[in-house]
């Protein structure tokens, strides 16, 4: 090697080391991270094509008709939701809906109790407690009907006890979620 270049490299060994580290990082980046970035961009493009935008710069897709109907059927204007929650109308509506489904399922309503109504900033939670009598298969049928009813009713807990005859005594605690609309869409 040329003695001039050897002397220059000895005097500036830190710069030469930094240049070698830079070249090493550039090689690792090109070998490891570029393919990962290309795969990420490809997967992001496929997700957008399938209707799942993960890119914040892309526009949001329209809500499906089924989801829009579910949201519309389980939401009220904010003022109406607060007024009906305070007056007990929402609780009466919940008990009426659940009693109708209980009767269709082949169960007998022994007692109903209204629970607390919780006003949240974007929703209202309406609770109810029911005592039912009937067979286990009828109770499973009720749960199936609740899941298909198109309402946001959740069974918080239930207890089954042996009752008279073939029937069972069933206690069910339920909560219905009513969403508050900030703008009227109707």
What's the arrangement of secondary structure elements?
Blueprint: H1 3-11, H2 13-49, H3 65-73, E1 75-77, H4 78-87, H5 89-105, E2 108-119, E3 123-134, H6 136-148, E4 153-162, E5 168-181
Parallel strand pairs: 1-5
Antiparallel strand pairs: 2-3, 3-5, 4-5
Compact summary:
The chain is α+β, with helices and mostly antiparallel strands.
Give average pLDDT, whole number. Answer: 86
In helices, the fraction of residues equals: 40-55%
The poorly predicted ranges are none
* Relevant CATH superfamily of the largest domain: Ribosomal protein S6/Translation elongation factor EF1B
Tell me the domain tally.
2
Largest sheet: 5 strands, mixed
Q: CA-to-CA gap between the ends?
A: 84 Å
The strand count comes to 5
The portion of residues forming beta strands comes to: 25-35%
Number of helices: 6
Along the chain, the helix and strand elements come as: HHHEHHEEHEE
Radius of gyration equals 32 Å
Description:
With 186 residues, this protein is an alpha+beta fold. It folds into 2 domains: 3-49; 66-181, 2-Layer Sandwich (Alpha-Beta Plaits), CATH 3.30.70.60. Helices cover 51% and strands 27% of the residues. Strands 1, 2, 3, 4 and 5 form a 5-stranded mixed beta sheet that branches. The chain is elongated, with a radius of gyration of 32 Å. The mean pLDDT is 86.
């Amino acid at each position: 090697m040329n003695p001039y270049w050897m002397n220059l490299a000895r005097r500036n060994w830190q710069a030469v080391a930094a240049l070698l580290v830079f070249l090493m990082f550039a090689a690792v980046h090109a070998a490891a991270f570029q393919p990962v970035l290309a795969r990420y961009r490809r997967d992001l493009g496929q997700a957008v094509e399938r209707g799942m935008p993960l890119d914040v710069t892309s526009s949001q897709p329209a809500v499906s008709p089924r989801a829009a109907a579910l949201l519309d059927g389980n939401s009220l204007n904010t003022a109406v939701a607060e007024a009906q929650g305070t007056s007990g109308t929402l609780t009466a509506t919940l008990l009426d809906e659940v009693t109708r489904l209980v009767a269709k399922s082949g169960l007998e309503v022994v007692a109903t109790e209204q629970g607390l109504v919780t006003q949240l900033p974007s929703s209202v939670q309406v609770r109810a407690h029911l005592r039912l009598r009937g067979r286990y298969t009828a109770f499973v049928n009720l749960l199936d009907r609740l899941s298909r009813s198109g309402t946001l009713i959740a069974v918080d807990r239930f207890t089954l006890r042996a009752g008279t005859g073939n029937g069972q005594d069933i206690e069910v605690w339920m909560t219905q979620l009513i969403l508050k609309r900030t703008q009227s869409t109707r």
